Amino acid sequence: MSAKTQAITSVMLALLLSGCASSQPNSGEALEAARSRFQAVREDSNVLRSAPKDVIRAGESLARADRLSSYWGSADDVRHYAYLSQRYSDIAEQHSDLNLNQERAVKLELEVQRLQLALREAKLLSVQEHGSWLEEQMLSLATSESERGLVMTLGDVLFDAGQADLQASANRTVLKLVHFLQLNPRRVVRIEGYTDNRGDKQVNLELSRARAQTVADMLVDLGIDAKRIEVQGHGENFPVKENASSKGRAQNRRVEIVFSDEQGRLGAAR
Amino acid sequence: MTNRCLYSALVLIALTGCASDPAPTEQLRLSEQAMSQAKAVGASEQVAELTLAENKLVQAQAAMAQEAYKDARMFAEQAELDARLAEARVLTEKSQAQLSELHNRINRLRKQLGELQ
């Protein structure tokens, strides 16, 4: 046995040992870690369902590491396959999480849609509530006359004397009227003009009609379909008060708005 | 004589154990593909596994150049799975973000509904 051969032999041995069993963590520990990791994902039904292939590969790599661990000098390989097995388990778990998240997202999307619908309905309801509040207001302005239905009176003060132009102070009332008609799309109106008995009968008739038309035009300008509006002039007919006093005459100069019922049926014209 | 036998046996083991692998070109291609896929879904250096994959891929390529094919294959295989894990993590994080966005929307909607009722 020469010293030279001995030296070479020991160098080779050292190489072998260092080459395949370097200072990394114990291969047995790596194997056990991979095994328990695999155990965990294999028992998770969600992981199995979402990523069966990765679970299988984790198992295969683990089995390989297992097999290699019984051979001398294969610690590196054991560590390698244990590492691969762990990675497959991790990937499988991530895929499972992703899958569960996506399933949850689908449910939440449905919930969002349901809530959006509910919100729209609630908003509509509040508009309707506001609408019925407005309706009450409108109706409180109007008086109910059994044979004519609901009647709202725009007084003389809203017009300049002898003129058909509506004053700016009438805007609020007209806007309320428009809003009311928008919220009650089936209702129609008849706008009737009246004067007192002073002056020429024919002129009064024309003035009463012109004033009623002014109100109707304004409603149309504000978006109410002209088909929903009838216009009539009654001149000095149908006074509400005696024309003897100036107060009575002032009350007789008026525009009345007759509302139909909710089905759009108007009372008979005078 | 026994020494010579032992010597040749050791050489044989060393050769078969560490240098019998073919060049893992296909595996390297797979690893590179997994890497670019991970980057395509938005994995960055902040994902630890992506950095791991990058380093191992470099090592695999270096081992390839030195014809250390077994090392090259091992590095490449690990790099592939590191990259795939990085990709999966990014996708899961994104779905998580999507979930919390949905939760926020639901809360906002519930709040609005509560205010109306």
UniProtKB/TrEMBL annotation, chain A:
Check the UniProt entry and state the signal peptide residues, or none: 1-23
Xref: Pfam families: DUF4398 (PF14346), OmpA (PF00691)
GO CC, sorted alphabetically, is:
cell outer membrane
OmpA-like domain ranges (all copies): 146-263
Q: Where in the cell is it found?
A: Cell outer membrane
Coiled-coil parts of chain: 98-125
Return the CDD domains for the record. OmpA_C-like
Q: What is its main location?
A: membrane
Keywords in alphabetical order, please: Coiled coil, Membrane, Signal
Q: Which InterPro entries match?
A: Bact_OuterMem_StrucFunc, DUF4398, OMP_bac, OmpA-like, OmpA-like_sf
Q: What is this protein called in UniProt? A: Membrane protein
**Organism, scientific name:** Pseudomonas taeanensis MS-3
From TrEMBL, chain B:
Task: List each copy of the DUF4398 domain by range.
Answer: 26-101
Signal peptide interval: 1-19
Indicate whether Transmembrane helix appears among the record's keywords.
no
* Keywords from the named record: Lipoprotein, Signal
InterPro entries the UniProt entry points to: DUF4398 (IPR025511)
Q: What is this protein called?
A: Lipoprotein
Origin organism of this chain? Pseudomonas taeanensis MS-3
